[in-house]
Specification:
single chain, five-stranded mixed sheet, Four Helix Bundle (Hemerythrin (Met), subunit A), 17 helices, 4 domains, about 600 residues, alpha+beta
């Protein structure tokens, strides 16, 4: 049946690394279920299964994908309340996890390996038996497809399902976050919300492997260059050491050696960062394969055009964006591109065009995914969001605001549930991951003509341009890419609102003013607003203006210290996930500093305002 597919060795190795980590998280979450079922734990299991299924399908491991789909159906029925948590359910899920782990472990040596899953499939089927009918070999969840109106009611049921997954109560979220030693069950965890002083933001993106597990493929040429620079540095250090021994540091030779040593250290640092830079070619190949396989499965004809595969990214960025970009491609093929018959009826070529391109920009890369499909139907997106309860029926939204509703979890315009679409997960993961990487997303679409989604990402997460600001005795680094503007509040009339807050009119826009200290684990500046009101024009009072999702807020600070390039380092386990903290660094004077995320702080503020 069909043609044997030769699997790419590099893609298999990448899949095995990710799948091994995901299956470990699946096991941890399943074992935790013994203490009692919660929507958070079951939601983690669902996200792991969903991502495993998509990742395996896109590299051609269809038998594995089919098996995971059966596991996903059981978890979905648990979410819907059709299957109650029991020891039997846990045993079957753990058996499935062991089977998948064995399967994945054998792929590196035997890519065609397929274990005997007959017994496990019967166990999964027995759990689903009260809730399914079986026409042929296809499982259909009857509770999700009522006979009277399968499309509309199915979508409503799915919206409610994902509300249960992601809108869990605060207590369950805090319990999950406190278990820092246990792996997360999903590649991307939703953001937690809370009050002004207490909202905590979970780290977005897949759980990072320990440093001992990270691997990089580095060309010998790059290593040779680095070794050469280190050798030159060693020579000049020897000159300085000898001059010091003879009290000759003030000689011309010693001064020259010191100057070159400083330059060499900068060059070594630059070359070391380049070691993490890898071309997009491997990821582009994965995306192309995924698009063609999905198109063939759906009977669609698609020509894939790849541009910019030689553009280089930090490996950290590539790893975190791989799965979200797969979601984008699958969404484009499944939702955007019509069948050949539909295209011909509309006067289009039967073969659609999907273009994936990467464009190098100053300090960033633009990844564009364009198709000449049906385009986005704003009215359908808005109607889905209204049914979900995200926006009111009388809301006045721009086309851009409506289109960005597709990034809200649970919002889907798919008319029915398939193994590709209808669950309302995927695009929300894309947005959260891009935001975690300090990037942005823009959408351009014309109904009937196609859609272009543009993702802007920094080329590296290791070194960034930052503004160092002072708040009381503390200093913080703010990425320049996240900063919209710096304003001097003493130059503008600041007014008090009826609720005790403050606003400033900036070129016709009313912008709320917040004290940055109120969002930081530092001594609070409760008098900050009074200082704003009383500040004379001769006294500077800076504020950092940030715009997120079309809304602006100004965070008042004490002073601006400097602007410099900083090296981003991960936070400790105790600080990881705290509100608005992106990472840490060493400042210009050698002292440690914390890197802030202004967009996260802005979202914390607007979430609080929305709850008032």
């Amino acid at each position: 049946m069909g043609t044997t597919i030769e699997l790419d060795r590099e893609l298999i190795e990448s899949f095995v690394d990710d799948a091994t980590e995901a299956l470990q998280a699946f096991e941890a979450a399943t074992i935790s279920l013994r203490a009692g079922q919660t929507s958070a734990l079951v939601g983690e299991l669902f996200c792991v299964a969903h991502n495993l299924k998509g990742a395996s399908m896109c590299i051609g491991l269809e038998p594995f994908s089919d098996f995971v789909h059966n596991v996903e159906d059981v978890i979905q029925c648990m979410i819907n309340g059709g299957i109650a948590q029991s020891e039997r359910v846990i045993e079957v899920l753990l058996a499935a996890q062991r089977c998948m782990t064995t399967w994945v472990g054998a792929l590196l040596t035997t890519p065609s390996f397929i274990p005997d899953t007959e017994s496990l499939l019967k166990d999964l089927e027995s759990l689903m038996a009260p809730h399914i009918s079986i026409p042929g070999e296809t499982l259909i969840i009857e509770d999700e497809v009522p006979p009277e109106d399968p499309d509309d009611d199915d979508l409503e049921a799915l919206f409610e399902m994902h509300r249960m997954i992601y809108e869990d109560d605060q207590r369950a979220r805090e319990e999950r976050e406190s278990e820092a030693d246990q792996p997360l069950g999903s590649y991307v965890e939703p953001m937690a919300t809370g009050g002004k002083k207490g909202p905590r933001f979970s780290a977005n993106g897949r759980p990072a492997p320990s440093r001992s597990q990270e691997t990089l493929r580095i060309s010998a040429h790059k290593l040779d260059e680095l070794v050469q620079l280190i050798s030159e540095l060693s020579i000049h250090q020897g000159i300085v050491r000898e001059a010091r021994r003879e009290d000759g540091l003030l000689t011309k030779a010693a001064a020259h050696a010191l100057h070159l040593s400083y330059k060499l250290v900068k060059d070594i640092h630059s070359k070391a960062l380049e070691l993490r830079m890898q071309p997009l070619s491997g990821l582009m190949q994965k995306l192309e394969r995924n698009a063609l396989d999905l198109a063939a499965m759906q009977g669609k004809r698609v020509k894939v055009i790849i541009e910019g595969s030689d553009v280089q990214f930090d490996k950290t960025v590539l790893d975190k964006m791989a799965d979200p970009l797969v979601h984008v491609i699958r969404n484009s093929v499944d939702h955007g591109i019509e069948s050949p018959a539909q295209r011909e009826a509309e006067g289009k070529p039967a073969e659609a065009t999907l273009k994936i391109s990467a464009i190098q920009d100053a300090g960033a890369v633009l990844i564009k995914v364009s198709d000449d499909g049906r385009g986005m139907d704003d009215s359908a997106i808005l109607a889905a969001a209204v049914r979900k309860g995200i926006v009111s029926s009388d809301a006045e939204l721009s086309s851009d605001q409506i289109r960005k509703l597709i990034f809200v979890q649970g919002v889907s315009t798919a008319p029915k549930l398939t193994e590709i679409s209808g669950r309302g997960v995927g695009m929300d993961i894309v947005m959260r991951t891009v935001q975690s990487l300090r990037g942005g997303i823009d959408i351009a679409s014309t109904l009937g003509e196609g859609t272009t989604l543009t993702i802007t990402l920094p080329t590296s997460l290791s070194i960034i341009d930052a503004l160092v600001v002072g708040v009381k005795e503390s200093r913080y680094a703010v990425p320049m890419s996240e900063l919209t503007e710096i304003i001097d509040l003493s130059r503008y009339p600041v007014e008090r609102t009826g609720k005790g807050g403050f606003i400033v009119s900036l070129r016709g826009e009313v912008v709320p003013v917040e004290a940055l200290a109120d969002y930081m684990p530092t001594p609070s500046l409760h008098q900050v607003h009074d200082r704003v009101l009383m500040a004379g024009r001769s006294n500077r009072f800076p504020a950092l203006l940030v715009r997120d999702a079309g809304q602006s807020v100004a965070f008042a600070i004490d002073r601006i210290v400097s602007q410099q390039q900083i090296v981003v380092r991960p936070l400790s386990d105790q600080l990881d996930g705290l509100q608005g903290l992106r990472g840490c660094t060493i400042l210009g004077d050698g002292e440690p500093g914390v890197i802030l995320s202004l967009p996260e702080l802005a979202r914390a503020y607007f979430a609080l305002v929305g709850m008032e």
